[in-house]
Design a protein that fits this description.
mainly alpha; two-stranded antiparallel sheet; single chain; 1% strand; globular; 16 helices; 68% helix
Length: 321
């Protein structure tokens, strides 16, 4: 029996339509649906606020001091706090989920947690720092986080989980009763869902974590190997990654080649395209309202990142020319 002929692209179109129609077993209203290109652009816009609403805490002095009190120096506290939902799975599983963060650093963080505290303690310390830091540095964000929290959790609870391990692990954590912190956690889940989706694309492109960091660094135009070094990649791993990328024609002595830039842009574009789902269901009007409510505060939080870490950190929050 001959199989039905399918034109290239038909499968992707059908898959996208099925995803949007079948979620919750009800049709998506077309009254508040943006055209595809507009929806992707809106997804790209809101992703910046999602990243910034969460990412500032990674280097916040209030969080760092709490981690240090638990025996976790420097960036190891960030690693332990973010990894807490996957803590019982061990450092190898955490490293696989994180993608580009140094596996030895992850192993060290897990070891220190086991010896001095618990992942629950680190999680609670991070939450306390979030509440304190938002109130101190971006108080205008408190109201929208509380107001949108219930809607965002409804989106989060129905997002597809297959292949999105870090996102799914976050869903197992107790939900805060404080409405502001609960809204922040919903945003964090959306961030991890997008991140898992992005790493699936990186893997599909045949890149390792260090190779992805090196290529990203060259695409951004940062100083040599800054990004992989900031994520703890060993010099030998960076050298190997550069050799592989050069052999594939993705980088040369001047930086990313045309092929490298095209691949890196493809990863960004596909990440946006494949993460429209929550915003399609929230609708254009509410998504725009959320973006407009978060963006002024996110500029303040990004300024905090510049101050506490440096202007190269958190590139996903920064607008490229």
């Amino acid at each position: 029996m001959e199989s039905e002929s399918v034109e290239p692209g038909d499968g992707a179109t059908r898959a996208e339509g099925f995803l949007l129609r079948s979620w919750w077993n009800r049709p998506v209203s077309t009254a508040d649906r943006a055209p595809d290109a507009e929806l992707v652009a809106l997804t790209r816009r809101i992703a910046r606020s999602v990243q910034t609403t969460v990412g500032w805490i990674f280097w916040d002095p209030g969080a760092v001091s709490r981690y240090e009190a638990l025996g976790l120096p420097g960036p190891l506290g960030y690693i332990a706090a973010r990894a807490a939902p996957l803590g019982p799975a061990g450092p190898e599983a955490i490293a696989a989920a994180f993608g580009s963060i140094s596996p030895p650093a992850i192993a060290a963080a897990c070891d220190l947690v086991a010896r001095h505290s618990s992942f629950a303690d680190v999680w609670a310390a991070r939450d306390a720092a979030v509440v304190e830091g938002l109130a101190a540095h971006a108080p205008a964000i408190l109201e929208p986080l509380a107001d949108f929290g219930t809607e965002l959790w409804e989106l989060v609870e129905h997002l597809p989980r297959v292949g999105r391990v870090l996102f799914a692990a976050h869903l197992t954590m107790p939900r805060p009763t404080d409405p502001v912190l609960s809204g922040w956690h919903a945003v964090n889940c959306l961030r991890e869902w997008r991140g898992d989706t992005h790493w699936a694309l990186v893997v599909a492109a045949g890149l390792t974590g260090t190779e992805a960091s090196v290529l990203h660094n060259e695409w951004l135009g940062y100083e040599a190997d800054w990004l992989p070094r900031s994520r703890g990649s060993a010099p030998t791993d960076i050298t190997t990654a550069r050799a592989v990328l050069a052999a594939c024609g993705l980088i040369d002595s001047a930086g990313a080649t045309a092929a490298g830039r095209a691949l890196r842009q493809h990863l960004e574009d596909e990440t946006d395209r494949l993460t429209v789902t929550p915003w399609a269901h929230l609708g254009v009007t509410r998504t725009l309202a959320l973006a407009e409510a978060l963006e002024p505060s996110c500029e303040l939080l990004l300024a905090r990142v510049d101050l506490t870490a440096g202007p190269n950190y958190q590139p996903a929050s920064r607008i490229r020319d």
